[in-house]
Amino acid sequence: MRTHTKKLKDWVQDAAREQIRRKARRQEKAGFFEREGGIGWRRKLWESYDAGQAWIVVTLVGSAIGLNAAFLNIVTEWLSDIKLGHCTTAFYLNESFCCWGAENGCPEWKRWSSFWFLNYIFYIIFAAIFAITAGVLVKAFAPYAAGSGISEIKCIIAGFVMKGFLGAWTLLIKSIALPLAIASGLSVGKEGPSVHYAVCTGNVISRFFNKYRRNAAKTREILSASAAAGVAVAFGSPIGGVLFSLEEMSNYFPLKTMWRSYFCALVATAVLAAMNPFRTGQLVMFQVKYDRDWHFFEILFYLIIGVFGGLYGAFVIKWNLRAQAFRKKYLTKYPILEATVLAVVTAIICYPNMFLRIDMTESMEILFLECEGGHDYDELCDRKNRWRMIFSLAIATIVRTLLVIISYGCKVPAGIFVPSMAIGASFGRMVGIFVQYLHESFPTSAFFAGCQPDVPCITPGTYAFLGAAAALSGIMHITVSVVVIMFELTGALTYILPTMIVVGVTKAVGERFGKGGIADRAIWFNGFPFLDNKEEHTFGVPVSQVMTSNVVALPAAGLEIRAIERIMAENKFQGYPVVDDVTSKILIGYVGRTELRYAIDRAKREQMAPGHAKCYFTSTSASTTTPSSSMPSVTFDTMAATSAQLNVDMSRFMDPTPLSVHPRLPLETVMELFKKMGPRVILIEYRGRLTGLVTVKDCLKYQFKVEAQENPRDDRTLNEGQERVWSVMHQVAVWFDVRLNELRRRLGIGSGPGIQLHSPISQTSSMDRGQHSAEDERPSIELEDRPRGRRGPDHVEVR
């Protein structure tokens, strides 16, 4: 079983350490002047390097992200096209490069067969192979590479630690498996995972620099900048990437971080443009230009598109979370089989529809285009096929929505940005074609009085563009960054106002059904200790009602090393308050578990301190409580050390000024302190005496309790429905297994192990949820006392 470390970084402590580091450098510089009388060129060069490390790091990170994005674009396009055919002149070319300059195919690009049904079979086989490969890579080498990663990255930037989530293996497997997952035809996108591999790149590169390896707060700046660069290369939108990082990813975004994010996104986008993966000068495939203006009567239809975006987001978020709950409850043991079956089912359903058959980015490129200019895909602009196109686009919208609900969250790299945009584009183009039909049917109507004669009045491609913006805003609940991203995609200043109208309506409708986008709901779903800035609460209670009163505290003087080790072995707390004595509980300071462990190990190693050596957290107590010995207390700077030294000074490892508040301080204010300052723990003291402590988890437990009381829910009906669905899936699997074994016997291959699906509900304790959690290797946190009514069916305990 893979183990995961889950704790919170203390940004207050990291900031204090950075101040100490800067102070030490200033003192060292002052001493250097006294010794040398001046600064030589080597010293100046070193100081310049130290001051410019941040810019070196963001330049390297941006360059690496741009190169990786170009590689992924090229590989994804080739894998997506290889399902449909191959290039006879060069097998490694995709269809657009093979037929360069041709509008509707070329003789050099051959289908796999001249028979439609055989092409259908090849399409399904390739989809299954790609999905199996991606699933095996993720399960065997990097389980954290599955999914989008945006919700986890939000928590990491806020201080949540997940060992390995941003590691080199995750970066490698995500970069390899992502094109395979996209090419398999699953209704998932690469834009969300682009943020994950970009942040992985920032984390891996920053680890080569001491300033970032030893300071998590500094690393957070690089991670925020990397997230901006990831969105920038995904959409070809550097400013939109910076705004996305500001609006969605980071709780704390000072001006310095914004400037570095801007520079990192600039470098990444410039490298991607230099690589020119599509050989068209476009940074993304669905980039388009509009040279027509819009009319005020079209605002009515823009409002319809905006309402669709809000309803789409609410619908997908609700049912995707239920699908995720079903997946965690029943499908945790079958990640590869699940991804393969989803890919095969998607291929079977999507191939007959011309808008579902092709890659989603390619479909958006087609739907965004104007009809004039010789661009026509399967007679999309033909008036005779108008109603057939409306029907086909409606089917594509409905089917893709259902596929997104069941596909997003499976154990392959999977994003939801582009699938949502493709759904919005399908709906928007459908509305645009219908409006165009109305205008041509009633050209003299007063409603269309703003149209000029003999000039195309309605541009259906702009409706597709606005539909994509609405769906993206609806699923993520972001506004400003969507407007800027769509503007940078089109370069159309005239369409900024319609985009703002659509996104504003989408936001208003979406907020009626719940706060936060799918990334925020995924954080709640997984139980991560994250306080969202978007939520506002009015509890009306003091922090004393939420705090932990039974606190394990360490006395400032006289506690033996073996006693401290016994206390640490009995619990997994991340730190301990230090009090004057256990009776008075006068607060002295706070010491973290990591610092305490390091101090004890170093005392044993360097001072040969025995287990009965006494520890002192204040230098004054160390000198006053050892009257029987004239020997000074042991510090780690002491050169001479013997086993007879029985006093260990740990004052340098204790924080003498921990963040503490009064017991009557409102809980809302304490939550704001956690959001803005990011401490690991806040101590509660009354007239100098320690009365308790509070953590983010304590705040969240109380929040869940209040929400469960305000919105009671009964999950029995939902659980019964899930069990019925699982029963049907089990029967289908058994039927398929029997037929497969019959086929094996007839062919003389021999019988294999077969497909065995087991329900965790009907099984014995050997198949309990604890084992499901062990297989699931995705991070989750159990918050004690979290009311069952608010857990939802998706909650997973990690033991």
From TrEMBL:
SUPFAM superfamilies: CBS-domain pair, Clc chloride channel. GO terms for cellular component: early endosome; endoplasmic reticulum; fungal-type vacuole; Golgi apparatus; plasma membrane. One of its GO terms (molecular function) is voltage-gated chloride channel activity. Gene3D superfamilies: 3.90.1280.20, CBS-domain, Clc chloride channel. The chain crosses the membrane at residues 52-75, 120-144, 156-182, 222-246, 258-278, 299-317, 337-356, 389-408, 414-435, 463-486, 492-510. Pfam families: CBS, Voltage_CLC. Its main location: membrane. GO terms for biological process: intracellular copper ion homeostasis; intracellular iron ion homeostasis. Residues 547-606, 654-713 form the CBS domain. It is found in: Membrane. InterPro entries: CBS_dom, CBS_dom_sf, Cl-channel_core, ClC. Keywords: CBS domain, Chloride, Ion transport, Membrane, Transmembrane, Transmembrane helix, Transport. Residues 759-768 have a biased composition (Polar residues). Residues 769-799 have a biased composition (Basic and acidic residues). The keyword Transmembrane applies. It is a multi-pass membrane protein. Residues 754-799 are annotated as: Disordered. Coiled coil: none annotated. Belongs to the chloride channel (TC 2.A.49) family. This is Chloride channel protein. It comes from Lophium mytilinum. The lineage of its organism: Eukaryota, Fungi, Dikarya, Ascomycota, Pezizomycotina.
